[in-house]
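Example 9 (inverse folding). The structure is encoded as follows.
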């Protein structure tokens, strides 16, 4: 090579190095806070919320065509951001099998000279339409020992609801489920429990239970009847209790089942760290609400659910947009649940059928909202229960908010939202919520009301709130520290079992 070329090369190399250095000096490495601000802005948030909580969404009831449209919007948003589908959910949808059960419209239990009428005298807790006749056998409380004393195959088993020492109808439900199992296993034809409670009088019970129910299930309804009989009809009850040799005819009719199509929306972003990317964090929110209902004083019947939970859905969307563009060390899974308002159905289904096994999921950062009455804070239900507390506090402080623990513990919010389905499995799972100091009028004015509409939200506050959430997501996704449950927590042991911790 010519000498001059050498020199030229050397000069070129030097100047190249200088350029790289200059660039490094003028462009400092962006922090997680900077990266948060790069994507989370007020107009994007507004656009999402105004769409999801619009009247056209008809309150996003589960199930409804509008809920599926909202789900499609979330899925295509993930697509647009470059969030990838998880294997097995190639279109970002996880079908959640649900069915709606309309209770029996007609039914009688006849024996001797007695005829009990459905609703007035008895309720069908479980079972399908049927017309059957069988001998009655009374088994006191129906404990396992009681069942061992008498042959019940082919008979209708009559027991007193609940177990000795239980006076709470809620406990009776669970006790009844056990009795039902034994009765079925032993070949009985049905289970009748005699119900009498001062706490929950019969007419309240009927109002509460005798309405359509939506449940996660794709199995066939079994005909096997589980019945509660109002024990106030003394003559009838005496016969049922004494009735060896007594035959009863049970007729149930009008139970209808409708299979529903609803979906969780799921997507993921792979982490950047060769080791930590095998750890996943779930960012989740439910996107359903309660649909159309009773009109308010303005005559509005659409329950828009802007706070509950378009806001939560959009916090997760904001995290998805940000993490797809600037991934964290850990991998991220974004999940939007269906059927929360029907009893946390979508999250329960997801927790039992996770896209990525839960032992690989180190944290679930859920977002759900009833409303707010304090724009100086974010309320994190479960803030003080996991190792992520300082990270969440740091994120909120950075955007001018105070991170506060649940201000209304009497509401039992931790165990009333989707996060609990993960907590029960052992995954540390708090819920990020709009700031509230108590469940006061400012909250109840909007909570599950037609007035919970996009134009009633404070978007200056929301921008801080969304940035705090996304920044916290980044800190949790990148931290070298532990985000596990604090020792002694209600779900600490479940967590140790899930992750095989010592
Ligand atoms: Zn909610």
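The amino acid assigned to each position is listed next.
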């Amino acid at each position: 090579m010519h000498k001059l070329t050498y020199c030229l090369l050397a000069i070129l190399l030097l100047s190249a190095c200088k350029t790289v250095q200059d660039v490094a000096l003028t462009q400092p490495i962006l922090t997680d806070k900077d990266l948060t601000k790069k994507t989370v802005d007020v107009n994007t948030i507004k656009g999402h919320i105004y769409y999801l909580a619009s009247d056209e969404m008809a309150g996003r009831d589960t199930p409804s065509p509008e809920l599926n449209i909202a789900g499609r919007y979330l899925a295509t948003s993930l697509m647009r951001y470059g969030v990838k589908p998880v294997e097995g959910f190639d279109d970002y949808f996880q079908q959640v099998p649900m069915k709606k059960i309309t209770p029996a419209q007609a039914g009688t239990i006849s024996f001797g000279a007695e005829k009990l009428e459905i609703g007035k005298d008895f309720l069908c807790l479980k079972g399908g339409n049927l017309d059957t006749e069988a001998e009655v056998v009374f088994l006191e409380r129906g404990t396992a020992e009681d069942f061992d004393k008498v042959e019940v195959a082919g008979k209708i088993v009559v027991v007193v609801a609940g177990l000795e020492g239980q006076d709470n109808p809620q406990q009776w439900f669970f006790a009844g489920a056990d009795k039902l199992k034994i009765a079925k296993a032993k070949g009985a034809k049905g289970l009748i429990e005699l119900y009498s409670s001062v706490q929950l009088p019969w007419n309240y019970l009927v109002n509460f239970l005798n309405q359509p129910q939506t449940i996660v299930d794709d199995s066939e309804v079994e005909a096997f009847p589980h019945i509660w009989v109002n024990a106030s009809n003394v003559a009838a009850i005496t016969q049922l209790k004494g009735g060896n040799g007594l035959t009863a005819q049970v007729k149930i009719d009008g139970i209808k089942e409708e299979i529903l199509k609803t979906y969780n929306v799921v997507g993921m972003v792979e982490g950047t760290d060769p080791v930590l990317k095998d750890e996943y964090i779930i960012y989740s929110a439910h996107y359903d609400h309660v649909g159309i209902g009773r009109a308010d004083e303005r005559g509005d019947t659409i329950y828009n659910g802007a706070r509950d939970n378009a806001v939560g859905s959009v916090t997760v969307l904001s995290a998805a947009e940000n993490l797809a563009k600037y991934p964290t060390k850990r991998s991220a899974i974004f999940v939007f649940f269906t059927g929360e308002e029907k009893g946390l159905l979508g999250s329960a289904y997801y927790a039992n059928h996770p896209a990525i096994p839960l032992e690989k999921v180190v944290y679930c950062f859920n977002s759900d909202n009833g409303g707010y009455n304090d724009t100086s804070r974010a309320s994190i239900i479960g803030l003080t229960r996991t190792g992520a507390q300082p990270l969440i506090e740091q994120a909120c402080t950075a955007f001018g908010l105070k991170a506060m623990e649940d201000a209304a513990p009497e509401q039992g919010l931790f165990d009333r939202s989707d996060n609990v389905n993960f907590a029960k499995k052992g995954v540390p799972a708090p819920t990020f919520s709009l700031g509230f100091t108590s469940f006061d009028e400012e909250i109840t004015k909007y909570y599950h009301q037609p007035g919970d509409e996009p134009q009633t939200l404070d978007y200056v506050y929301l921008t801080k709130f969304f940035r705090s959430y996304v920044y916290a997501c980044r800190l949790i996704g990148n931290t070298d520290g532990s985000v596990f449950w604090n020792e002694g927590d209600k779900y600490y042991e479940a967590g140790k079992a899930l992750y095989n911790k010592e």
